[in-house]
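thread: overnight batch results

M.L. [08:02]
morning all. the overnight job finished for the chain we discussed friday. pasting input first so we're all looking at the same thing
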Amino acid sequence: MAKFFSQTDIDKFRECFFFHARRGHISNEQELSLIMRSLGYSPTTKEVNKYFNKYAKDNKIEFASFLEAMHDQSSVENPEKELMNAFKAHDKERRGYVNASEIQHIMMSMGERLSRQEVDAIFREMGVQQGGQIRYNDFVKSLLTPVPDY
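M.L. [08:03]
and the structure it wrote out:
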């Protein structure tokens, strides 16, 4: 799995896996779903079922098999594509821009809600003016660029 994930990712997966799977393995689909979601992935119930059936041996998933399931899920999820489709849905005229106040409202009221201060910080970092327009191509790239850890 080292060819698919960085050592940092593998360490993060291992820490989360063994935090939740104290016996050293996953025994059911609920545990698998919990661990994957704790790591920021969003598998459907059907996908979790498929991974459990595919990778469980004697109704247990060990860490190495868990990494295989994570690779399968990371191949399915494409955050850039998902975000671009969401922005395009709000861009009725297909101009490549969306209203900043509309995005601010969405970020503060849907899903994992952000505070006004958090949204303002994101907009400030990306140079978005209050009430202005957001070029969503650039916005998505900026959102998905990893923050340096120095």
